[in-house]
Amino acid sequence: MIKWQGKINEFRSILGLLKAIDLSSNNLMGQIPNEVTNLHELIVLDLSNNSLDGQIPRDIGQMTQLLTLNLSRNMFSGEMPSSMSEMHSLNDLDVSFNNLSGRVPLSTQLQSFEPGRFTGNSRLCGLPTTNKCLEPVSENKGDGESTNELWKWFYIRGATGFATAFWIACSALFLNRRLRHAFFHFHNCLKDWVYVKVLVFIARVQRVARA
Asked: Whole domain around residue 195: which residue ranges?
């Protein structure tokens, strides 16, 4: 309890009064306890230049009053928590020289920092870093569907051509010589037509696959 201005005040958790924590360059090891994210009044958290590892606490975005967050030169791994996009008060962030990966969460605040604040994380991508993120496989789904449609078209046209040629051949067996000659001429033309269509189809499939 603290007596101030004639009043007695009881503080159940003195940690809730903390405004700044600076434990930089203290050879700290292990992971950041998730309970740290309950310090909602904290405005400065500096844990830089230690040997801390594990992931950044996923609820760190609850620390909405933070103005400065320095986690640089540790061994943090995994992705930056998506909750960090809610830290709109941040004006100083440094997560450089860790083992972070994945895309930097999208927010007007995080994307406003210099790329140097994220450097040293070779698998971290997206703005403001200089590393481009690979497009998700799902975004290429349209190309796969286009290829499937081409195969369906090929099978349908092939079956139709075969059926037509079969019935013409059967008819020619029961008709006169002139029609038989016409059939063989048609057969040669059909063979050339199918050959050209197959080449065109293969070229289209290759273009779609390269797109």
From this structure: 138-210
Quote the Cα angle for 122-124-126, to 5°: 130
Q: Tell me which long-range contacts 165-173 makes (C-beta under 8 A, separation of at least 24).
A: 165/190
The domain boundary, picked from 116, 133, 150, lies at 133
Bond preceding residue 128 cis, omega within 30 of 0:
yes
Residues 58 and 110 occupy one common structural domain: yes
- pTM of the full structure: 0.58
- pLDDT tens sequence across 169-207: 666 555 555 565 666 666 666 666 666 667 666 766 666
Whole-Å CA distances, 13 to 1, 17, 178, 202: 11, 8, 105, 72
**pLDDT over threshold 50, residue 3:** no
